[in-house]
Amino acid sequence: MAQAQQGQPRIMVLNTNTKREEGKKVQEENIKAAKMVADVIRTCLGPRAMLKMLMDPMGGIVMTSDGNAILREIMVKHPAAKSMIEIARTQDEEVGDGTTSVIVLAGEMLLESEQFLEQRMHPTVIIAAYLKALDDVVDIMEKEISTPVDLDDQELLSKVVKSCIGTKLIKKWEGLAVSIALDAVKKVRMDVGGRTEIDIKRYAKVEKVPGGEIEDSCVLKGVMVNKDVCHSKMPRYFKNPRILLLDCGLEYTKGESQTNVEISKAEDFTKLLEIEEDYIKNVCAHIIKAKPDVLFTEKGVSDLAQHYLQKAGITAIRRVRKSDNNRISRACGATIVNRAEEITEGDIGTGAGLFEVKKLGEEYFAFVTECTDPKACTILLRGPSQDLLKEVERNLVDAMNVVRNVIVNPRICPGGGASEIALSVRLKERARAIEGVQQWPYKAVAEALEVIPRTLIQNCGASTIRVLTEVRAKHSDKTNVNWGVDGNTGKPTDMSTLGIWEPLSVKLQTIKTAIETATLLLRIDAIVSGLKPGGAKE
Ligand SMILES: Nc1ncnc2c1ncn2[C@@H]1O[C@H](COP(=O)(O)OP(=O)(O)OP(=O)(O)O)[C@@H](O)[C@H]1O
Ligand SMILES: [Mg+2]
After folding, report:
1. Is 1.10.1650.10 the CATH number for 154-221+381-409?
2. Atom of ligand 1 nearest to the CA of 91
3. Does any ligand 1 atom lie closer than 6 A to the CB of residue 166?
4. What pLDDT digit, counting tens, does each position of 461-486 carry?
C-alpha cells in the first residue's frame, strides 16, 4: 500500500523503511527462533548440567547454569526470541525455579505445532487444543500426580530443597545450602491474619564477602550492613543495644531549590551559623533524650551532629539504604522515625542481643545479631571469588524460593521427568475422547512434555530411546506415577526412592507458561519492524 501512495507521505500506511512479514513465514520463523533459544540452554537442565560462561560488554564474566541468568545476558534481535527470554524472567519472578525447563518446554511445544501448520491447520485450532490440554494438565497434576506435604516433616522438606540444589553448582555443599535455605525462609515467614507472607527478596538479603571458605557461610540471627560507624571514636560494640532508626538526615537542611542570602554585616553571618548550630543541637538533644545506643539513618550526619552524639556515647551509622533500614527494623523491632521530635519509647528496637562492627576482608560491616525473633535476616556468603559467590547466591535464591513455594502451596510432585511422563500417558488417553482434528495438537502437547525426561537423559549421555521406552512402559501401570529418570546415571528409577521432589506450583507454572507462550507466538501472523518508538497507531 505504501508504494501506491508514494509522494503523499501523509497517507502512507507504512514508512518506507519498515519491514513487514506475514503469514506462514512468520510462524515458521517464530518457531525457529524459539527453538534456537531453547537449544542454547538445553544442556543446562538437570543434575549433570553444564555451566555457561558469559562475557558482558563491560568485560565482566557470569558463570551460571541458571536459565534466566544466562538468557538475561544474551542480546537477541528476533521478537519471538525476545518473548522467549521474557518468560524465563517471568518464571524466575513468579516461582524462582524452573527457568530452564520453561524455555526448553516452550520451544518444544512450538516445534510440535510446526507439523500442523504445514498441514495447513489453522493456528486457532492448534491454540484451542493446546489450551484444552493445559486445563487437563492442571487437573491431572492436582488430582493424580501430586501429593500433599506435611510442613513439619523436615526430612521431606529438605529433600525438596535438595532436588533443587542438586542441579546446581552448590551441590558440593548440599547440607549447608539446604539448612541455610530452610533457616532463612523460616526467619522471614510472617503469619498475618491467617495469611502467610514470605518476602525473600526484601527480607532475606544475601551479602557476598569474598574470602574465607564456603563452609563459613551462615544465616545471621539478624542482619548486617556494609557500613562503618561515622566517627572513629564511637563505640563499635554493644550488648543488648537500644536501636533507633531514622530516615531523616542530621544535617542542616538547605533550601530545596536555590537560595540566595545577602549578608551585609559580619554579625549576620555569625547569626546564620548559630541558627544552623542550634538546629542540629536541638535535633541531637531529642535523640539523646531517647537514649539509644545505636542510630541508623538513611541520610547524612554532619560533623557537628557526630560530635554531640559521640559525646553522648551514641554510635551513629549514616547513609544506610532504605531496604537495609527496613530489614533492621524487622530484625530488632524498631520503627523508622522521620522526625527527631517525634521519637517515642516504642520506636526504639530492643530485640537485638548484639551490635558490633567487624572487619571482614577489606571492609567494615555493622552487625545487628542475636535477635530474639528476627523477621528479617542476612545470609552471609563467603567463598573464593566474586563470580563463584554470585552463582552460589543465585542457587540459594532458587532454593529459598522452592521452600517458599512449598509452604504457600504444600503439594509436591516427582521430578526427574516422572511428572511429565505420567502427564503424557494420561493426556494421550484423554486424547482418544476428543473428536475431530483437535485431537492431534492435543496429543502433541503430550509428546512435547517428554522433552524434559529426554533432555535429562541426553545430558547424562544415556540412550534416549531405550530409557524413555522403559520409563513409559513402567507408567502403563498407573500406580507407578513416580518413575522417572535418574539424572546422574540415566537409568529409570523410582523418584520416591531417589528423593527427587519438586513443588507442584513450580511444575504447574512451568507448564502453564510454556503452553501459553507457545499459543501466544502461534497467534502472531505478521511482524512489522522499523516502527517509530510510539507504536503503530498512525
Ligand atoms: N537427581 C536427579 N535426577 C533426575 N532428575 C533430576 C534430578 N535432580 C533434578 N532433576 C530434574 O531436573 C530438572 C530441573 O533442572 P534445573 O534445576 O537444572 O533446571 P530448572 O529448575 O528448570 O531451571 P533453573 O534451576 O535454572 O531455574 C527438574 O525437572 C528436576 O526434576
Ligand atoms: Mg532448578
Report:
1. no
2. 27
3. yes
4. 889 999 999 999 999 998 899 999 99
